[in-house]
Amino acid sequence: MTEPIDGVPPVVDTPAALNAAATALAAGTGPVAVDTERASGYRYSQRAYLVQLRREGAGTVLVDPIALDGALDSLPPALADTEWVLHAASQDLPCLAELDLRPARLFDTELAGRLAGFERVSLGALVERMLGYRLEKGHSAADWSRRPLPQDWLVYAALDVELLNALRDAMRDELQRQGKLDWAHEEFEAVRTAEPAPPRAEPWRRTSGIHRVRNPRQLAAVRALWEIRDTFARDRDLAPGRVLPDSSIVQAAQANPNTEAELVALPVFGGRQQRRRASMWLQALRSASQLDNAELPAPATPHEGPPPTNRWSDRDPEAAARLSAARSALAEIAEHNHLPVENLLLPDLVRRTCWIPPEDRSVTGVTEVLQAKGARKWQIGLTAEALSKALHATPPAAAS
What we know:
The chain is an alpha/beta fold and about 400 residues long. The protein has three domains: about 15-190, Ribonuclease H-like superfamily/Ribonuclease H (Nucleotidyltransferase, domain 5); about 205-295, DNA polymerase, domain 1 (Orthogonal Bundle), CATH 1.10.150; about 310-400, DNA polymerase, domain 1. The protein is about 50% helix and about 5% strand. It is built from 21 helices and five strands. β2 and β3 (about 60-65) form a beta hairpin. The longest helix is centred in the middle third of the chain and has 21 residues, at about 215-235.
């Protein structure tokens, strides 16, 4: 499929056009297919630069929230109490919430594919498998902040919701056939109501290539460069990697240049834009070099939770035995139910439970732990008994 069946509608970019679109959507029937386009590789923010909606009786609507200054007030009432159909909903819900668009009910076609046990769950793969269409590959990684939006980009955006409701129906039937529809409803609700993840304590430690930096003074340089880059990028709404690549941050921290001439002699820093910013980068490096030893970052982030699992056998053989038994049991349950083991129970939850098990390791005790950690009813029903048995496992030497 290379073109929407009804063609590409004009972009909604005025209050009058938005009101007309909202009226049409409210008069439609059935679920509403929803998608967004962001500019993650180009902009600092994760805002939506285009919102696509489609509903039976209303057709496809392409809304430009930038032209409307984010004021989409007429849409929430029009979509109230409708089921929204999204693919990989957790990626789109935050930027939709910024526009005060929040679903009352949700169907996530990607998550449905995972629960159905399908190996390939991209939108294109599911549409081809379930509906027999191949979607035109397009512009998901494009700079959607660009204006005006090219016509072929709008074709791509409209196609993203063209078959989403039909895919929802097909996936619903498949889940019903497999006896997993109730599981899916629990999962969809968990995604819909999920709280935003808290900000990372030291986000600069995620700089790509930082594992090559061992010296605390050099780590301080990475931190200083990362933080000044982040401020610069946020103020200008630019993707940080377009301001300065992570690899250049690591390289400058290792080289420790003392002058602008030494800095711009490094790859990337010699470019025209980086030459203009050279004093900013050099000041960050100098500030790191002048820190007292007590102000330097630790070589590694203080670790929360269990250690890496490859160290469990040495540090706590009993915990290693519990984890091995749990993984084996959960893998068998997942295979029997034709779904990924990570969707059966979050691996981090399994690790934490095996590392520090509850005092009450009975099925009741394990159920209480899983409930407290957010596991869904269907997950607990499948795993609590097996996990309870695993928590009683002992190392082979101890067993003998």
